[in-house]
Amino acid sequence: MSTDRAPLSRDRVVEAALAVIDRQGIQGCSMRAVAGELGVEAMSLYHHVPGGKAEMLDGVVAVVQTEFVEGLHLTGDWRVDMDAFARAYRAALKSHPNVVAMIAARPSVAYRSSTTLVGALFTAMEDGGFPRDDALRAVRVLSRWTIGFTLGEASALEDGEQAAEFDEPLLVEVFSDIARGEDDVFEFGLEALLDGLEARLSA
Amino acid sequence: MSTDRAPLSRDRVVEAALAVIDRQGIQGCSMRAVAGELGVEAMSLYHHVPGGKAEMLDGVVAVVQTEFVEGLHLTGDWRVDMDAFARAYRAALKSHPNVVAMIAARPSVAYRSSTTLVGALFTAMEDGGFPRDDALRAVRVLSRWTIGFTLGEASALEDGEQAAEFDEPLLVEVFSDIARGEDDVFEFGLEALLDGLEARLSA
DNA sequence: ACCTGAACACCGTTCAAGT
DNA sequence: ACCTGAACACCGTTCAAGT
């Protein structure tokens, strides 16, 4: 809707796409809608995003991922850093809930925007005493788990209004828990996972 | 492609949709394609799936979920059952990789098809000595984690052919690991999580 | 009762044409 | 160089019409 007449650019296209997605969801993010956001016709976008819609959405994933990576500062202590990574990632994803499914579907783009961070985490694990293979596995598990958990939460919040209709008492309980927010569940799982990893060190 | 002239039904429509998705992915699963699979016109589907495409896809999720639930038999020992749940769920999802993203996006449908199983797991945890709240949290964490891990793997396998193009050595390593299969990573994470849960029992 | 043809309002994308 | 109008081959869905 912004009728800014700044010249179009790849960054402005991607930024507009993110704005549309945050507001209307992925469904609402058509090329025509993004163009409208920029006060332009759909066909103009292709000059700045030659790969079309796929490249535009890859750009959105990279922006969200970079936003998160730049806000995180590590200490070198594996447990502190793994904990901080998971919490900060979750927080970043929760501020763009409609993008989480896209990130889950584009792991190569997500990885590309965070190799430095992942590498640092990974050497913190090695410095902490984990064998190289286990360090790699642990980081991958934590990152997958964080994305998966947050995606499940975002999806459940979106289709959770039906919770009232649920006949099963357990279903009603779980979905009203979800509606109240799942920070405690996330932290419960995170702590269990990190405890389990730490136990490996002594073994 | 099957030109069977058995009468159409909701189940046949959903089954055809699953077949199309397994073969062509979600992108290829248009109403016209599903109709073609049944030798029928697109508009005929709406008589058996009045809710349209959304209801059809909900049906696909329910079928995959039910397939899994019916194949799993629990023992009552929390650790054995949590382990079996995660492994069997992962195996079921891996046999329909194109459906995993849909399951992740439709937690209410997935839950609905498995309340009995989740309830049983949950009482096994309580019988094992976990407080009610922790039992609920643990089951939710495990289920989310399993879906999230397998979704990440399925997605990475799909866009992983680009791995050769990666410039970053760490990226190349991770993506060639993924291409070799991630059973060991999954099991590593699963064991750590269950170890972490077990540690809570003694505390 | 069950199926369908034609139509509507959308998509992503191409390409030749405008400035 | 950058933007666009018209067009193409697709979508999901509605509805009145066929059998």
Main features:
70% helix, mainly alpha, Tetracycline Repressor, domain 2, 10 helices, DNA-binding, homodimer, 203 residues, Arc Repressor Mutant, subunit A, flat
List the helices and strands and how they pair.
The structure is a homodimer of 203-residue chains.
Chain A: H1 10-24, H2 31-37, H3 52-71, H4 78-94, H5 100-105, H6 107-112, H7 115-127, H8 132-159, H9 169-179, H10 183-202
Chain A binds a DNA duplex (19 and 19 nucleotides) through residues 7-8, 30-32, 40-44, 46-47, 52-53.
How would you sum up this structure, described in words?
The structure is a homodimer of 203-residue chains. Chain A is mainly alpha-helical and 203 residues long. Chain A folds into 2 domains: 1-50, Homeodomain-like (Arc Repressor Mutant, subunit A, Orthogonal Bundle); 72-202, Tetracycline Repressor, domain 2, CATH 1.10.357.10. Chain A is 70% helix and 0% strand. Chain A has 10 helices and no strands. The first copy, chain A, has helices spanning 10-24, 31-37, 52-71, 78-94, 100-105, 107-112, 115-127, 132-159, 169-179, 183-202. In chain A, helix 3 crosses helix 4 (78-94) and helix 4 (78-94) runs parallel beside helix 8 (132-159). The longest helix of chain A is centred in the last third of the chain and has 28 residues, at 132-159. The radius of gyration of chain A is 20 Å and the shape is flat. At the A-B interface, helix 5, helix 6, helix 7, helix 8 and helix 9 of A face helix 5, helix 6, helix 7, helix 8 and helix 9 of B. Chain A binds a DNA duplex (19 and 19 nucleotides) through residues 7-8, 30-32, 40-44, 46-47, 52-53.
